[in-house]
Every structure is written in C-alpha cells, then in structure tokens.
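Structure in, sequence out. Go:
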C-alpha cells in the first residue's frame, strides 16, 4: 500500500473531486496516526463526539469523560494538557463557580497547520526500523508537558527498539540478580558519542513512510474538480448550450435543438415539470 491520489490527509478539507471532508474524518485520521499515550488517544476520540460538526464548543466535563472512558479525572486532565500543548485543543472558557454549581471547561479541537511535525505514523501505519540493529518494531510513545506549557517527546523510544528486560534467574541460581543489558539506544549512543543527539531526521528514517502527495494527485484533483463543475453546469442547462452555435441552441418554436438542428420539445421549467403526471413526464423525457 502506498500513498495514492485518494489518500485523505489530515489537512485536506475536501477530496480529490472537490467533495468536503468532515472534521471528524480528518481528526480521527490524525489521532490514529499520532504516536502518543493511549489515554490521550481515547480522550481525543471521545471528545470529538461532542463537536461533530467542526470540533467547537466541547464541554462534557472531566467527570463525564471519566465515566465514558474509564480513565481517572486526573488522567483526563493530563490528556487535555497534552492536547493543548500539541496545539490540537484550545481552552475557550475556563471552569467557574456560578453560585449553585461549577461549569465545565469549554474546549475547541483543531488540526494544527504543522501537523506533519507531530510524532505520527506514515499514511500506511508501518512498523518502524530500529536505527541501530535494523529490526522492525512498534514505536513507543513518550510525551512530556513542561511547566511552561511546551510539549516534548522522547523520540529515542520511536527510533530504537524497546530496551530488553532483565535476564531471568536460572533454577537454583543464587546471588544478586543480573543487571539489565544495554538496549539499542544505549549501544548507539556509546558508538556515536554521548554528545550526539537523536534528531527528527532519524525519526523520519525509522518511519520510512512519508506523507508526500503524489505528483499526479494535484493535477488529478484539479481535473476531477473541473469535470464535476462541468457536469453541474450541464445539469443546470449552462454547460453544453454555451458550447453550441447559436443556431443549434434553439429551434424556431423556442424549444431546444439537438446537435444536428432537429427540433426537440420546448424547454420546461422545474415548476412546469412538477405539475405533469409521472407518465407524461416520462414520455416527454423519452
């Protein structure tokens, strides 16, 4: 499977033929590809149900979200912070006490313009390739929100294989347990030097599945949109008649003429067609 002209990107507001793509479809596409903690994914998929049209005015409250997701309110609050730090949610109205009850926070969901810079799978959701040993693995999330509201990612978990576990004791073995063996990240760091940083370029190499639109897609999108617009003009009686010579558009009785000049039935309005019996309308169409 590769990226095709029909692949929907999270930033696409319309399909290749010009049909609109709903916010929910684009939001779920991005959330599915996002390499983030499962609690954040679950909150994102649940919260969008409250803003199906455009992701606006979402205020279910953390307690209600907790009942629906099975997550604690503390976990829900942390997940909201990650969404906000990632520019995928915005707090519109903070919770307040009205004198009788406390209102819930009001959020808006959004797809950031730089969504491609998030730690996400490629369009085919392939496994990543370890940049040390070359084995395929599933990248592990590692998200952290700083005190200043910024978000950081432990991309080493997405570039290298998970660290191996501690060796098990053999039957009857005594003494202290064996230490954890070094993982691929530690081995790579040792060979590259401790001052060498893991970069997003390594992340893209490990992913090897880019969100790059095919060169034919943009031209195909334009051609299909023009064909659709032309069909609509023909249906509305504007397209084909505009291309014909004046003599071929109308006959002497005020009716339409065919391509060879032959007379056809006079043009009828939508109101006149609605007043005709079904059988008469079918006969005139034939």
């Amino acid at each position: 499977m590769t990226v095709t002209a029909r692949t929907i990107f999270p930033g696409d507001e319309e399909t290749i033929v010009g049909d609109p793509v709903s916010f929910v479809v684009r939001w779920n596409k991005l959330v599915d590809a996002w390499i983030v903690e499962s609690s954040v994914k679950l909150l994102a998929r649940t919260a969008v149900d409250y803003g199906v049209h455009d992701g606006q005015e979402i205020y279910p409250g953390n307690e209600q979200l907790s009942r629906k997701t099975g997550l604690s309110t503390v976990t829900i609050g942390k997940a909201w912070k990650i969404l906000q730090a990632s520019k995928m949610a915005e707090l519109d109205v903070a919770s307040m006490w009205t004198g009788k009850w406390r209102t819930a926070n009001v959020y808006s969901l959004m797809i950031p313009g730089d969504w491609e810079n998030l730690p996400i799978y490629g369009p085919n959701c392939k496994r990543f390739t370890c940049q040390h040993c070359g084995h395929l693995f599933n990248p592990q999330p590692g998200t952290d929100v700083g005190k200043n509201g910024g978000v950081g990612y432990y991309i080493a978990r997405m570039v290298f294989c998970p660290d191996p576990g501690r060796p098990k004791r053999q039957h009857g073995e005594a003494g202290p347990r064996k230490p954890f063996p070094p993982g691929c990240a530690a081995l790579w760091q040792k060979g590259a030097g401790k001052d060498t940083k893991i970069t997003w370029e390594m992340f893209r190499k490990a992913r090897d599945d880019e969100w790059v639109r095919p060169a034919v897609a943009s031209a195909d999108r334009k051609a299909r949109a023009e064909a659709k617009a032309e069909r609509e003009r023909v249906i509305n009686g504007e397209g084909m008649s505009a291309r014909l010579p004046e003599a071929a558009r109308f006959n002497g009785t005020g009716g339409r003429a065919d391509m060879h000049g032959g007379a056809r039935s006079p043009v009828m309005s939508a109101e006149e067609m609605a007043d005709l019996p079904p059988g008469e309308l079918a006969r005139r169409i034939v």
